[in-house]
């Protein structure tokens, strides 16, 4: 526990963590309510899928601009702007829903705009962590708890949203989310740290994107690890979209069975948080970048052949553990080794690989499942991820050798 909680010895991180925890809970409550509202208004599965796609695809397109924003301006002020934008858009949802005559296309449009705000905010939020936790040895703990915060919000938010929708209506969920953003604004107001180097405002946007891409490519570890993250996100995370098929057709269950399967993956993510937060050193951390994708791919492959519920739950636990482990390991490496003035842009490429590939993977998995069935589709995806992990494992000596001087430059001797 001494090692696991070391991020909380930094007052700035404590304040930020508290504000973000409330905000993330509000975001997940709104996400569920938004989907429910679209389905209630339209009864269309297509529009329901379109809403999710519109909210997520922005990460693939606009994340690099969020990275430039993170490198060009003070990250705390940038987050203040994104919180007010979120509040304003959510307030429009509250008004439309409260009026009793919301339009489904207005709701989908607002979901798309909120997705753009998220795409701009996420690189800023991720690249701010090293400034709140100046001791680099404590970064794994901070990033692990930030990942755990997301996972807990993903687990609690839908439950709370369900109760709020049962007792009230969608407008109350949207109002709660708008209020939750003030928690972030309050925490940001009390942060005390030195401002990071700022990219010259006169720098051309496309030049900045090109420079960030070149810098990322020239970092040998990221040249190999980012594509693996993209492959893992494309192949593994779409299990969520197809899981209702397994719950209903393979195990003959309903919503409760779906909850068990998805919850097992969420519990695996929490185990990953506990493990990585408790690691006392960065030594050996990079190995997990090859181990975690292999574990997730093999577990997903086994899940597609399993007809035993206990075995399937164990497989989903390993899938969740592997996905979050890979994401947190790569994020930790980026925050430790990248130069402060380029960290935002590198983080934006990480966001593209981790979150931006998910909607594309869902589309591909859905099309493949339609053609050959969900079990066979996920089996192909799992086997592809295992093959990618094997290729990365072959390159890991080169990756670790390239990491050593980067760690030493950052003042972290472990490799």
In N-to-C order, the SSE pattern is: HHHHHHHHHHHHHHH
**Category by helix and strand content:** mainly alpha
DSSP E strands, number = 0
Count of alpha and pi helical runs: 15
Fraction of residues in helix: over 70%
What is the rounded Rg? 21 Å
Largest sheet: none
Give the strand content: under 5%
Silhouette: globular
End-to-end span in angstroms? 23 Å
- Poorly predicted regions: none
The overall pLDDT average reads 82
Describe the structure.
The chain is mainly α and 415 residues long. The chain has 15 helices and no strands. Helix 4 (75-98) runs antiparallel to helix 5 (104-132), helix 9 packs parallel to helix 14 (343-372) and helix 13 (309-337) runs antiparallel to helix 14 (343-372). The radius of gyration is 21 Å and the shape is globular. The protein starts with 10 loop residues before the first helix and ends in a 6-residue tail after the last helix. The mean pLDDT is 82.
SSE blueprint:
Layout: H1 11-42, H2 45-56, H3 58-72, H4 75-98, H5 104-132, H6 139-167, H7 170-189, H8 205-218, H9 220-235, H10 239-250, H11 255-278, H12 288-305, H13 309-337, H14 343-372, H15 374-409
Helix pairs in contact: 1-2, 1-5, 1-6, 1-7, 2-5, 3-5, 3-14, 4-5, 4-7, 5-14, 6-11, 6-13, 9-12, 9-13, 9-14, 9-15, 10-11, 10-14, 11-13, 12-13, 12-15, 13-14, 14-15
């Amino acid at each position: 526990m001494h090692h696991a909680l070391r991020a909380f010895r930094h007052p700035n991180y404590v304040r930020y963590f508290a504000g973000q925890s409330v905000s993330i809970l509000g975001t997940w409550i709104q996400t569920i309510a938004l989907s429910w509202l679209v389905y209630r208004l339209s009864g269309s599965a297509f529009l329901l899928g379109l809403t999710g796609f519109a909210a997520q695809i922005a990460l693939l397109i606009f994340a690099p601009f969020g990275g430039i924003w993170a490198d060009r301006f003070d990250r705390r002020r940038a987050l203040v702007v994104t919180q007010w934008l979120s509040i304003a858009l959510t307030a429009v949802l509250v008004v439309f829903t409260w009026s009793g005559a919301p339009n489904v296309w207005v709701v989908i449009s607002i979901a798309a705009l909120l997705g753009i705000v998220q795409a701009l905010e996420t690189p800023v939020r991720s690249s701010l962590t090293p400034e709140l936790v100046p001791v680099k040895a404590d970064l794994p703990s901070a990033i692990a708890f930030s990942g755990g915060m997301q996972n807990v919000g993903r687990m609690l938010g839908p439950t709370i949203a369900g109760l709020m929708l049962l007792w009230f209506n969608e407008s109350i969920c949207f109002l709660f989310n708008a209020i939750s953003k003030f928690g972030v604004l309050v925490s940001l107001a009390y942060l005390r740290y030195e401002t990071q180097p700022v990219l010259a405002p006169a720098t051309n946007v496309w030049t900045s994107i090109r420079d960030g891409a070149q810098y990322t490519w020239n970092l040998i570890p990221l040249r190999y690890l980012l594509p693996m993250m993209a492959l893992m996100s494309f192949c593994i995370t779409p299990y969520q979209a197809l899981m209702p098929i397994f719950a209903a057709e393979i195990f003959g269950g309903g919503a409760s069975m779906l909850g068990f399967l998805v919850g097992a993956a969420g519990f695996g993510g929490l185990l990953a948080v506990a493990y990585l937060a408790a690691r006392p050193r960065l030594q050996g951390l990079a190995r997990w970048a090859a181990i975690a994708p292999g574990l997730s791919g093999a577990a997903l492959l086994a899940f597609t052949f399993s007809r035993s519920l206990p075995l399937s739950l164990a497989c989903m636990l390993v899938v969740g553990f592997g996905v979050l482990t890979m994401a947190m390991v790569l994020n930790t490496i980026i925050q430790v080794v990248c130069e402060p003035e380029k960290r935002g842009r590198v983080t934006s490429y990480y966001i593209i690989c981790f979150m931006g590939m998910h909607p594309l993977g869902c589309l591909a998995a859905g099309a493949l499942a339609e053609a050959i069935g969900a079990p066979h589709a996920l089996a192909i995806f799992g086997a592809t991820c295992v093959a990618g992990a094997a290729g990365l494992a072959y390159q890991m000596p080169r990756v670790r050798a390239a990491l050593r001087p980067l760690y030493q430059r950052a003042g972290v001797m472990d490799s």
